[in-house]
Amino acid sequence: MQTALQQQRETYRAARRRMGISVAQPVVQRPALALVPRSPAPAAEAVPEPAAEPFPQQSQPLKPIREQERRSDYEAHLYAPLGHAIRDAICMKYGVKLRMLLSRSRKIVPMLARHEVMWELRQRTNWSYKRIARFMNRQDHTAVIYGIAAHQRRLDARTA
Fold it and tell me: Where is the Chromosomal replication initiator DnaA C-terminal domain (predicted)?
């Protein structure tokens, strides 16, 4: 008993035979260029190291370095607040559910909370606009730039 696919194949084979169409075998072409093995490179000559110059004398003492600047990037990462903690704290502050915060809603309360989260993430972490946009379920970094600027304007208006 043949399946429907086998019957269809057999029908097409019979039709090709009746029309005199045959399937040609693929032609294998040889490469036009022959690969030649490379000869080993000559050994490099030893180059003497230049003599070390003495350290220049400082005319002024160095400025003290702040603690934040002294930390390495890894240590700064360890002490930086997590994005989820910032986002959850602001959700609690505004009484907004996370789903509403990450939505496309233009209602005033979720929008204000969203802008504040973006502003806090930019201030407290070293995240890029693109990373904040992905974290906030946005497609484009320009929404983050706008949100940060809008929140900064509101802060400036409060202090003025």
Answer: 82-151
